[in-house]
Every structure is written in structure tokens, then in C-alpha cells.
Design brief:
By secondary structure, the chain is of the alpha+beta class. It folds into two domains: about 190 residues, no CATH class; about 180 residues, no CATH class. Helix content is about 25%, strand content about 40%. Strands 1-6-7-8-9-3-2-13-14-15-16-12-10-18-19-20 form a 16-stranded mixed beta sheet, with helices on one face. A two-stranded antiparallel ribbon has the order 4-5. α1 packs across α4 and α5 packs antiparallel against α6. It starts with a strand and ends in a 9-residue tail after the last strand.
Length: about 375
């Protein structure tokens, strides 16, 4: 066992370490494992994720992660978490965000209930993660701890075969006054069936089988298009895009087109919709774990407070030459049912996918064409739409 501590100490760093140790002395229940910690976060209403990567030739990587970022609106200089969280909780009703629309700033109030839950979940994590990490460090093959005035970083090799890794970071982005927490648990497993094929046919077949088992499925074609020479809007005005690829050089203003199909499964009741989303997600997990497509990545997240149910966020097969996607699936729960988006290989070296893709039939440059809505709105105005 190798344990290494690299420590850059200052007064603020000493305050930070002391405070985190105080938090870890008082857990309500001692968490025994990393999976229990992630499960507990999900049950408390957080959104930890579970991912599967199949980029290697002989292994797949299963990964749990949780990231939380909160802005320090109170101007607390040190990383005294108890003081910072307390003051932030006390002042939540006055916290606002600004959104840029057509070059002008517009104030919008945050979801205070959600933000309060985020802060309480961070306190829960800090209460439990430090004693668990220290316990794992004592019996790990290798462990490293880096401490600086504004951060603490653990890196732990729990086991070699299969390789199990833990990373926990807490750091402050001083120039933007953000306090970040990041926890990741990674397990590498040998592939049962080795393949270098990136053919999406098995995934498409799974999707079609799942849809065939549902009732009253509706579908419509989608496309997202940019004309040659039309630049993307600036980052501040481009918040409508859930994912995008920008290019530099001669391809930065190339024409592009993404096409696909959106499927809608109507269903009543939030619990029924959760069960359906969980069933589809579990089928995708089994396929990714047992018969992975080469260069694919599956991203899921736990449904908060739902007894370990998960939902698919996206499934992507990457092109090894361009790093564009060859094939992508997204899923979204709504009040009226489950939406699933299937996209094909983009034409061109840049693309965008709209945030509210389940409500959009097509986009053309900075115009958005809503499903069941004849009014075409500029993309920058998307925040005014109820979606």
C-alpha cells in the first residue's frame, strides 16, 4: 500500500481542512461503501449518474459520478463550508440569475426549493465522504491526497484486478466565485465479447423492439440545419443548445445537417412514466455491458428519491476519425409520457441539438420550429416558451 500526501498549506487551507474534518465527525449514519453513498444521494433527491464507456479493446468502464456547482453569492473569502452554506441558505430568496437575450440582461429567479436541496445534499456528502475516503485510503493499493489553499483532491486505487478507482475533489473557482464538488467511482471490467465494430444496428434493433411493445406510439422526423457561412451565436445567447460541436478553421462556417426521428410514448401518471423510463434505461445498460458497441458511451442518471430507478440521458457512438457521433439516442420524461430521440450521423463538421428537442421538429440557423405550433420563434427567445 502506498499513501502519499502532497500538501501546500496556508491559513485558508488549514481552515478548509479543519472544517471538512469537523463535518465528517458527525454523520447521522456511517456510509459503508461508495455505491451506498451514491444510492443515498439519489434517495435524497440528488442526480448522481451511472455511465458505461466502451472505448477500449479489452475492457469496458463503469462509472458512477456526482458533480455539484454552487455560486458563492455571499462573498465569503475562505472555504469555511459551514459558514458559507449557512449564509447561502439564509439568503436564497434574494438569489437571481441573469440571462442574455438579444444582447440585454434579464433577471430570473432560481428554483429556490431545488437550490436549497442542492446545498443540503452537499452538506450530507461532506458529512459522509471524508470518513469513507479515509477508510478506503488505509486499505488501498495506492492513494494520494493533494491539498492547496483552495482545493482538496483525493485519488485512490482501491484495487488492481479489476481496476477500481476513486476520485474526490473539492475546489473553489476563485475568479468566478464557484464552489465545486466532484465524486467519481470507476470500475474497469474485461469484455466478454471483444469487438471493434461501431455498427449501431444492435442498438436500433433494441429501440424498435422496445417501441413495438408500447401502445399508441407517435413519431415524427426531425432535422437541425445550419447554412454555410452562418455563424453560431455567441455563447451567452446560445443556451438553447443542449450539445454542439464547433469547428475552427475552414470548417467553422460549413453547412451542416442532423436528421433523425423523435418517438413519443403517451402515458399517464408520474410513477408509470418513471417505470417506463427505467425499463428502457435498463435495457440500454444491459446491451452496453454485455454486447457493447465499440466507441460507445452510455450516460444515465438516477431518478431522485425513486428507489434506484434510472433514466437514459444519452447513448452516443463516436466516429474515431472525426469524433462526431455516428449515432445518438436521447430520452426525456415529460408530464404526458416518454420521448425518445434517435439521431443519425451528421452531415458536416459542426452541429447543434436543441435543449427542448422533445418539443422541436426542426431548426434552421437561429430559427426554431416547434412541434404542434405554427409560430416560428428565434432560438434566442426559447426561454419564453413554456417548454
Amino acid at each position: 500500500m502506498k499513501t502519499r500526501h502532497i500538501i501546500y498549506m496556508s491559513l485558508s487551507a488549514m481552515s478548509f481542512v479543519s472544517c471538512t474534518q469537523n463535518l465528517s465527525e458527525k454523520p447521522e449514519h456511517e456510509i459503508e461503501s461508495l455505491t451506498e453513498l451514491f444510492d443515498s444521494l439519489a434517495m435524497r433527491g440528488a442526480y448522481p449518474r451511472f455511465n458505461i464507456d466502451a472505448f477500449g479493446d479489452s475492457v469496458i468502464t463503469e462509472e458512477y459520478d456526482y458533480f455539484s456547482c454552487l455560486e458563492d453569492t455571499m462573498g465569503v473569502d475562505s472555504l469555511d463550508v459551514e459558514e458559507w452554506y449557512k449564509r447561502t441558505l439564509d439568503n436564497l430568496p434574494s438569489a437571481i440569475d441573469t440571462i442574455i437575450i438579444d444582447g440585454e440582461k434579464h433577471a430570473t429567479y432560481r428554483d429556490i426549493k431545488t437550490e436549497r436541496r442542492m446545498i443540503e445534499n452537499r452538506i450530507f456528502l461532506l458529512h459522509n465522504v471524508f470518513p469513507l475516503v479515509e477508510k478506503l485510503c488505509k486499505r488501498a493499493r495506492e492513494s494520494y491526497r493533494y491539498i492547496t489553499p483552495d482545493s482538496i483532491d483525493y485519488s485512490v486505487t482501491i484495487a488492481k484486478e479489476p481496476q477500481k478507482l476513486l476520485s474526490f475533489k473539492r475546489y473553489k473557482v476563485t475568479n468566478r466565485d464557484y464552489d465545486n464538488l466532484f465524486l467519481r467511482y470507476t470500475v474497469e471490467k474485461p469484455l466478454k465479447i471483444k469487438t471493434k465494430s461501431s455498427d449501431p444496428k444492435p442498438v436500433h434493433a433494441l429501440l424498435k423492439q422496445f417501441l413495438a411493445e408500447q401502445k399508441d406510439v407517435k413519431q415524427y422526423e426531425v432535422n437541425y440545419e445550419w447554412d454555410k457561412g452562418v455563424p453560431f451565436p455567441t455563447e451567452g445567447e446560445f443556451y438553447h443548445s443542449v450539445s454542439q460541436r464547433r469547428k475552427r478553421g475552414p470548417d467553422s462556417l460549413a453547412a451542416s445537417l442532423v436528421t433523425g426521428t423523435c418517438y413519443f410514448i403517451p402515458l399517464k401518471g408520474s410513477k408509470a412514466i418513471e417505470r417506463l423510463a427505467d425499463e428502457f434505461c435498463n435495457r440500454m445498460i444491459r446491451l452496453s455491458a454485455e454486447k457493447p458497441v465499440h466507441r460507445s458511451r452510455l450516460t444515465t442518471r438516477f431518478l431522485p428519491g425513486s428507489d434506484m430507478k434510472k433514466e437514459l440521458q444519452n447513448y452516443i457512438i463516436h466516429d474515431k476519425n472525426t469524433n462526431l457521433f455516428i449515432y445518438e439516442i436521447k430520452a426525456q420524461r415529460c408530464e404526458d409520457g416518454l420521448h425518445i430521440l434517435e439521431l443519425n450521423n451528421p452531415q458536416g463538421q459542426r452541429y447543434t441539438i436543441p435543449v427542448s428537442w422533445w418539443a422541436v421538429m426542426r431548426t434552421h440557423n437561429t430559427k426554431i420550429f416547434w412541434r404542434n405550433n405554427d409560430n416560428n420563434l428565434p432560438l434566442q427567445k426559447v426561454s419564453e416558451n413554456p417548454f
